[in-house]
Design the sequence.
C-alpha cells in the first residue's frame, strides 16, 4: 500500500518584520491587510435571463500594523513627516518569518501614504506594554512566498527596548495648568487620521493616492477634583463667558517616559487646545473612590518627535 507523504510542511509565521526602502525597520507585534480585492458588479438581467457578473477595478486594502519602541529612525521619521504635513510615499514590505527568523513570505507595497497613527490610552495603574498602531494605504502590493524557508532576517532584536514603553509612565503639561496636570491619572487614546483620496488615471490599472485632510483628535484627561481649580477657571472663562479666541487657547506637551521616568521616548506637542467639556465621573453613593473629573479639549494641530532611546539607526 502506497503511503502518501509531502515534502512541504506547514509552518508558523511567529514573527513579523517591516522593511522600508530595502532596509530593516524593526519587528512588529502584528500585521494585517494589504491584499488585492475587487468589487463584483452585477449587470442588468439580459434576454437569456442570466444575471451576468464581472469584477471592477482592483483595489488594495490598507495595511495595519502594531508596534512599540525599537523601530528604526526611518520608520519614526515617516510618522513625523505626516504630522508635519510633509507626506512621504514609501516602498516597503511586511515580512513573515518563523521563530528562527527565517523568511517565509513577504507582502511588498509601493507608494504608501500613512492614513492613521494611534497612540495607546494611558493609565497610571496599568502594567501592560504600550503599543502603537498604524495604517497606511499602498497604491499596489505584491505577495511573494518562500515555501522552503528563505534567508534569515537580520536587524535589531531587543525585547527589552520594546518593554520600556508602558502606558503608566507619562508626563502631561498644559500652559498655566501644570499643577492639575501633575495629578492626571488617565489619558484617552490619541488617533490621528489622514484622509487619502484616489486619483484614477486612464492608462493605469492601479489608482494613484493623494493626501487630503489631517484629522486631529481631542485630548481627554482624568484627574482628581481636588486639583481642578485651574481647569474650572479656564472652563468658566472659555465656555461659559465665551472668551474663546485664539489668545485663550493653550499649548501643551505629552511625554511618554521610560519606567525610571528619566528618559523621554516620544513627545506629542499640542497646539491651540480649547476646553469644551468638564464633567465629574459617576460615583455611587457611599463609594470610597476618589472623586475625579474628565476634561475634554479640542486640538487644532499636533507634532510628533521621538527620543534617542526609541529608535535604532
Sequence:
Amino acid at each position: 500500500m502506497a503511503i502518501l507523504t509531502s515534502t512541504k510542511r506547514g509552518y508558523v509565521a511567529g514573527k513579523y518584520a517591516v522593511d522600508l526602502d530595502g532596509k530593516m525597520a524593526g519587528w512588529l507585534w502584528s500585521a494585517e491587510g494589504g491584499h488585492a480585492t475587487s468589487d463584483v458588479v452585477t449587470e442588468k438581467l439580459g434576454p437569456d435571463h442570466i444575471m451576468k457578473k464581472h469584477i471592477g477595478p482592483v483595489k488594495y486594502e490598507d495595511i495595519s500594523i502594531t508596534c512599540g519602541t525599537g523601530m528604526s529612525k526611518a520608520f519614526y521619521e515617516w510618522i513625523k513627516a505626516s504630522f508635519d504635513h510633509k507626506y512621504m510615499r514609501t516602498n516597503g514590505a511586511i515580512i513573515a518569518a518563523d521563530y528562527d527568523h527565517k523568511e517565509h513570505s513577504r507582502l511588498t507595497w509601493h507608494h504608501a501614504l500613512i492614513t492613521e497613527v494611534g497612540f495607546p490610552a494611558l493609565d497610571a495603574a496599568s502594567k501592560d506594554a504600550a503599543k502603537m498602531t498604524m495604517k497606511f494605504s499602498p497604491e499596489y502590493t505584491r505577495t511573494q512566498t518562500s515555501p522552503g524557508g528563505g534567508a534569515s532576517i537580520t536587524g535589531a532584536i531587543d525585547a527589552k527596548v520594546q518593554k520600556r514603553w508602558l502606558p503608566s509612565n507619562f508626563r502631561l503639561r498644559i500652559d498655566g495648568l501644570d499643577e492639575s496636570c501633575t495629578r492626571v491619572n488617565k489619558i484617552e487614546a490619541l488617533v490621528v487620521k489622514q484622509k487619502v483620496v484616489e486619483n484614477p488615471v486612464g492608462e493605469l490599472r492601479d489608482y494613484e493616492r493623494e493626501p487630503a485632510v489631517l484629522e486631529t483628535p481631542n485630548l481627554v484627561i482624568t484627574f482628581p477634583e481636588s486639583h481642578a481649580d485651574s481647569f474650572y477657571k479656564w472652563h468658566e472663562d472659555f465656555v461659559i463667558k465665551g472668551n474663546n479666541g485664539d489668545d485663550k487657547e493653550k499649548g501643551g506637551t505629552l511625554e511618554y517616559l521610560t519606567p525610571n521616568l528619566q528618559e523621554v521616548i516620544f513627545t506629542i506637542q499640542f497646539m491651540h487646545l480649547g476646553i469644551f467639556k468638564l464633567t465629574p465621573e459617576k460615583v455611587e453613593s457611599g463609594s470610597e473612590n476618589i472623586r475625579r473629573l474628565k476634561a475634554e479639549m479640542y486640538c487644532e494641530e499636533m507634532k510628533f518627535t521621538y527620543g534617542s532611546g526609541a529608535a535604532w539607526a
Summary: The first strand starts at residue 15 and ends at 20. The two ends are 59 Å apart (CA to CA).
